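Q: My labmate handed me this sequence with no annotations at all. I'd like to see what the chain might look like in three dimensions before we decide whether it's worth expressing. Could you predict it?
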Amino acid sequence: MFWNYLVKRYAKKVVGELNEGKDPFTEEYEYERKSFLSGTTKVVKRRREKTIHDYVPEREKELIRYMRKKSYRMELVFSFCGMRLGWINIIKLVPVIGDICSLIFTLMVFNNIKKSIGNMPKDLQTHCLANIMIDFAFSLVPIVGDVVSIAFKPNCRNAMIIEEFLDSKYRKLKNVQDGSLRIRSPSSTANSIGDF
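A: Here is what I predict for the chain of 196 residues:
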C-alpha cells in the first residue's frame, strides 16, 4: 500500500508519467458485440498491439516489434499494486550488482537497435543514452532509486523515441515519393513572381 502511494505520488512527479500511465505499445479500440440469445448489441473496448504504418519498410517493422517486445519484457510484464514492472526492476533489487547488470542489459538492447538502424542521428543516440544513464544514476540510491526506476522506464522511453524517429523518417520519404510534399524550384518561383 505504501509502495503504491510512494510511486504514484512522488516518483511520477520527479520523472513524469510515461504515456499517461497507459501501455505505450497497445491501443484501445471499440467494436459492437451482439448477444447470441437476446440479439442486443453493446459496445466493447479491447486492447491490441499498435499498428505500424504501411510506409515503414518490413525490416524496420521487425525492428520496432523487437524493441517493443524487449521493452515490454524488461519493464512492463508484471503488475504489482497498480504498478507495471518487469525483469529489469526485479534484477535491480540486488543492491549494486543488479543495477550494473540491468545497465549492461539495457545497453546491449540499445546497441543491437543502433546497429540495426545503421545511420542513427547523434542527437537521438544522446537522448537514448541520457535516459539510460539517468535511470542508472537513480538506481544507485537504495530504495527511492528503485521506485523512480519503476516509474521512469528508460527502455520504453527509448523504444517510443526510436519508433517515432523511424515513423517520421519514412513518412517524409513517402511524402516526397508520392508528390504530396511539393518542393518548388527556384526557377518556378521566379516565373510566378514575374507573372504579376
